[in-house]
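forwarding from the other thread:

> can someone predict this with adenosine-5'-triphosphate?

sure thing
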Amino acid sequence: MRGEGADQRLDPWGKTNIGGRGQKMEPGAPHECASVRPPRTKDWPANRRFLTIRNRCTERGTWCFSDSWHAMTVVVAFVSRKGGVGKSTFARALAAVAARRGLVTTLADLDKDQKTSSRWQRLREKHQVFPPLTVEAYPNIDAAIASEPDADLLIADAPGNAPELTMEIASVAHFVVQPSGACFDDLQPAVELFYQLKSSGIPKSRLYVALSRMLDPDEEEAARAYIEVADFSVLPGAVVERARYREAHNRGLAFIESPGEDLAASAGVALGALLTKIIRKHRALRPRPENAVALSQPS
Ligand SMILES: Nc1ncnc2c1ncn2[C@@H]1O[C@H](COP(=O)(O)OP(=O)(O)OP(=O)(O)O)[C@@H](O)[C@H]1O
Ligand SMILES: [Mg+2]
């Protein structure tokens, strides 16, 4: 974490304290290995833990995966089957609020054709928006995770309608968030994608729909009911459709940073709920003090 308390002006989440990063071992230090890296097979999503490995096992001389200190980066993926539902919009807003909260955050732009987040980052730099964010384009999630070992939070902005890439990204993410509009045209593919991810072995508890581009409370309520009947989780709150959000994007701002935004309103509630889950997960991933001491002893 860095920048703790650096700018609290837009920070409604300041009461939550994520704490320090915990003890960290040097690469190559002895540690307990759960197993060697499994081969990438057809059913590889079930082996998703291998991507959390950042250390070379000194005993086996090979890559290993472990529940120890390696996996401290919380990975949040914004995915969808449909395009234009708000993945990049949510991803940018989460990056902005997480950075303000003091999390070391990288927004990984995995949409190599559109590069929406990367282009937006250039606008952010041009307009000198505070806080500066780390936005990097990566060809896949493996490369993003491997390149960002020190991040508290890695946000994956996935392309729409990319089944294989979506499966890869979702299988390593701690939270898979799918924005959806209120129309049946959006809700049905959203639910179908989650059924597909679930049947591939991704725990349902990691899957969340985020209501996006809502126009009135009635359609928000109907959309929430639709997702809940399908037995998937919906984040509280919703992002409403506003022209000023598009203007904000044009100036390198996240929608949540747009002038006049009420952070206690529905969109802030959705982002705040997600941020709270991220902070809890980050705490859970940190090594317990007794493990850190045991692991730091030479074998
Ligand atoms: N709540 C909103 N209000 C107004 N405009 C919005 C809102 N959400 C998204 N937009 C606009 O809609 C367009 C699509 O949004 P966004 O790029 O976030 O979708 P996406 O799911 O990432 O799309 P793609 O699948 O093409 O990557 C953008 O121009 C964005 O500025
Ligand atoms: Mg996008």
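The first helix runs from residue 87 to 101. thats all i got for now
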